[in-house]
Amino acid sequence: MESIAVSALGYGAASLTTLSLFPQAVKTVRSGDTSAISLRMYGLFTLGILAWAAYGLLKSDGPVIVANLITLVPATVVLERKLRALLEGRERWGRGPRGRG
């Protein structure tokens, strides 16, 4: 049985990590600019979050489950905006805005 202090540490760490992604998601939604965001990084990151959530479910680890399901929200928002910019032609695949960079 895990102590309350260990659980509190887990939930505290999960909260900090999860909250760190929301400013990027809010900035991306407000500005619509995803030119400095790496598609590969956010794609891999989002898959990693899904894997951690599955792991947490399999291990019945509350902090891992909660943190990763919440983290999935801003990560998915940023990834969706990046993909939309690419598909709408506002950015080019593998390059910066309109092919620069």
Question: How would you describe the overall organization of this protein?
Answer:
Helix 1 packs parallel to helix 3 (about 60-85) and helix 2 packs antiparallel against helix 3. This protein has helices at about 5-30, 40-60, 60-85. It has a single domain, classed as Monooxygenase, CATH 1.20.1280. The mean pLDDT is about 90. The protein is built from 3 helices and no strands. Helices cover about 75% and strands about 0% of the residues. By secondary structure, the protein is mainly α. The radius of gyration is 16 Å and the shape is elongated.
Number of domains: 1
CATH class wording: Mainly Alpha
Q: Helical proportion?
A: over 70%
Q: What's the end-to-end separation, in Å?
A: 53 Å
Computed structural class: mainly alpha
| CATH domain fold name | Monooxygenase
CATH architecture classification name: Up-down Bundle
Would you list the SSEs in sequence order as H and E? HHH
Helical element count?
3
Give the overall average pLDDT.
Answer: 88
Low-confidence stretches: none
Q: Beta fraction of the residues?
A: under 5%
**Rg to the nearest angstrom?**
16 Å
Shape: elongated
Summary, kept brief:
The protein has 101 residues and is mainly alpha-helical. It has helices at 4-31, 39-59, 62-87.
